[in-house]
Sequence to fold (258 residues):
Amino acid sequence: MSSVPNVVVHRDAEVLANAVAARIITRLVDAQAAKGSAHLVLTGGTVGIATLAAIAATPARDAVDWRRLDVWWGDERFLPTGDPERNETGARAALLDHVDLDPSRVHVMLGPDSGLSAEESADAYATELAKAARPEDHGPVPSFDVLLLGMGPDSHVASLFPGMPALYDTRPVVSVHGSPKPPPTRISLTLPAIQAAREVWVVASGQEKAGAVRLALADSGPVQVPAAGARGRSRTLFLLDRASAAKIPPGLGRIASP
Fold:
C-alpha cells in the first residue's frame, strides 16, 4: 500500500536544497533513535547534489551518527569510478568525503572498471540490497528510511524513462540501455524497489519541470509518467520550488517559503 503525496513548495532552488537538507538530518536522527541505524538512498542532479552540500555546510549534520548510516543510490551512470558524470562522484565531493561514514556501508553501483557488465553490476547491487534486507522488510530490499529522487522534464525518476522496458521490470535493480539522456547505459532501482521505501521524496526545481510535476501528481500511469509511480509506503513528499510547482492545482501545495 502506498501513500498519497504531500506537496511542499519553497521559494527557490537554494531555499529548497537547504530545507531538504534539514529534513534529511531530522529524519535520519529520528530513524537512528528508533532502531539504531538508518538507510538513505541518494540521487544526483543539480538539486540533489546541492542538498548534500547543504547538509555538509550545516553544524546540524553532527546530530547524525554517520557510522550507523547505510548509503545507497537510486541510479548510476555506467561509467568508471571517479568519472565526473557519476552520481557517486558528485555525492562524495558534496558530502560523503566530509563525514565519518563506515566505508562498508556506502553501497556503490559498480562501473565498467569493475570488470562487470551493466547487467552483472545490476545483479551485484541486487545481491547487496538483499543482504541488507531484514525479515521485517518483507522483500528483497531494505525498507529505506528516505529515498531521494530527482525528476526530469519528461517525468523520469532514477533512470526510469517513459515507455522503457525497465518500467515493467519486477526485479529490484536493472541495467538500462538506450537512455534518452547520455550516457546511454545506466543502472537503476525499479519501481518495486522504490516503492519499498518508508518515505519517498521527489525533489524538483525549475519551470521546465512544472508540466511533469502536474502529471506526476495526477492519476497518470507510471509507464508514461514514471514519477507517478514514485510513492513511499508510509509517506511521499514532493518538495518543490515555486517554478516547478507552477502548474499544480491551486490548494494542492503547502507554501513553506513566502
The CA atoms of residues 71 and 167 lie 24 Å apart. The chain has a mean pLDDT of 96. DSSP finds six helices and ten strands in the chain. The beta strands are 5-10, 38-42, 69-73, 75-77, 146-149, 173-176, 186-189, 199-204, 235-241, 253-255.
